[in-house]
Amino acid sequence: MARSVIVERHAAPLRQQVVRLLREQILDGELAPGERLLESALCNAFGVSRTVIREALRQLESEHLVTVIASIGPIVTVLTQRDIESIYQVRQNLEGLAGMLFAVNATDKQAKEMIELLARMETEFLKGSVESRDNIKSEFYELLLEGGGNKVLAETMNVIHGRIAIFRRYAFIDEARVAISMNELRRIIDAVAVKRDADLARNACEEHVNLAGKLAIQEYERRLPQNASVAETVA
Prior knowledge:
Keywords: DNA-binding, Transcription, Transcription regulation
GO molecular function: DNA binding; DNA-binding transcription factor activity
CATH topology of the largest domain: Four Helix Bundle (Hemerythrin (Met), subunit A)
Order of helices and strands: HHHEEHHHHHHH
InterPro entries: GntR_C, TF_FadR/GntR_C, Tscrpt_reg_HTH_GntR, WH-like_DNA-bd_sf, WH_DNA-bd_sf
CATH class of the largest domain: Mainly Alpha
Number of domains: 2
Structural class: mainly alpha
Protein name: GntR family transcriptional regulator
CATH superfamily of the largest domain: GntR ligand-binding domain-like
Domain HTH gntR-type: 12-79
Helix content: 55-70%
């Protein structure tokens, strides 16, 4: 059941506020995979009309966070193990290419900015909050893609990152994983911005995503309701 939240009438449009609140509750695990999203309950929880709720659910469906099932209605999306593996297989190849392109195409200024970003990561990522980790990791990808100079790759990776938002949140919560991820980021930045070695950069990026994919399956399955299995449930 969605947590009741007062939606302000004078700020962003109601739909945007409801989308943001529902997205946060899904990503934080307050709304579990497979949980039904009843319009009447959501209207009561947020104090808005059915029209606003329906528009918000359509937006979240386009982000793959909500799935509409015939005769059941909207639910929080449930992924199979194969779904997650497929997403990370694509992500692994894309990020490997992104690392390689940065090593080859980035300007000296962009390489310097990447090295400076690593210094900030030692505090904002390694010792930071979930929010600061999310923010600086987003900065890392923005710079990586900007330096690579391939707009099609950037657009495609943004879509993939939208699909894996829930998994990124898992990684930012677990302190042990954060420490491992920090070591991986050090290797990536050394390869792309210091050594400017395309092959080393691709390998470092691919290894980072490979480990992240394994964590995603483990953490997602752990958060599923007891009567569901990530290996068996059909999205």
